[in-house]
Predict the structure.
Amino acid sequence: MTKTKEFVAESVQNMRPSGIRKFFDLAANMEGVVSLGVGEPDFVTSWSVREAAILSLEKGYTSYTANAGLLELRNEIADYMENRFHVKYDPKEEIIVTVGASQAIDIAMRAIINPGDEIIVVEPCFVSYVPLVELAGGKAVTIETKPEHDFKLQPDQLKQAITPKTKALLICSPNNPTGTQLTKEDLQGICDIVIEHDLLVIADEIYAELAYDIQHTSIASIEGMQERTILINGFSKGFAMTGWRLGFCCAPKEISHACLKIHQYAMMCASTPAQYAALEALQSGMDDVVQMTKDYRRRRNYIVSSLNEIGLDCHIPGGAFYAFPSIKSTGLSSEEFAEKLLMEQKVAVVPGNVFGKGGEGHIRCSYASSMEQLQEAIKRIKNFIEK
């Protein structure tokens, strides 16, 4: 009998399955579950956006677009980035429309990493970062951020992690899973070190629209950073378009051309109807984004105050739609807490340890759910920790 497992690359054999997906699958097979697990807006994509996709199909726009995406869409993205985040990109040379922000991160990694290059990854973080670094042949050097610093990267930590092999820093603000938002002052301290050591930054800013207390600052907008930043963004979170799978990356021309080489061989182009939908989203969807953001802020305030009231310490996340409370007072590990909570009270959360260093002792609670669902979840969590 053929040992088919031996055909699988060692790098993939050694890769851990996504911890988020594990709990999502468990919850999907149970009835009556209140899910705070998956990071997905509960809002439906705006009707005008859906209608634009339908219209594109009715017009017969079913062929490939340019590899880098519709130029009309890239022009809109360029205007959006300049108007919203004060960074100016050439739509013909520096913007690529991708299949979600995840693909943008993937091609960015493969475009810059030589075997053995070190990429500094700030944890807790999105579960894909470290595997994507490793699949590209790099070494992920992780830095653990601490709750006493609101999970913000400290400049001294960054200095200590840099070696002669360091090529780039991968950073996400607002952060998944902590919701931490870096201020301009926070970013300036990081940028000074990045520039001093001539590093690149891969900035995942997919949650840029979901900033609740202060305006999001793009790291690329800081002086001296745009020429050394690959900026990742997309439509999934802010525009409630997760299933459309549409993101984009903005980078200096030479890096953007390298990313496009990989994109054109691996993907050809992003979905054509989805690109027309995204075009409409940028042209007419901002009012809905503002309204959704207001609603997320209201939910954030509720869940954070409620978690603290029932005894789970939780810092106030500045953005995204995640609360990241400590469950250390229960004496359970993150995995134990999440599993028992799901089995006993039918509430799905994600154990913090799946997000890397610093995640143990915490759980991620997505508040991209209705207030009724959040209230029910809090009631059940309270029952769980008081029993």
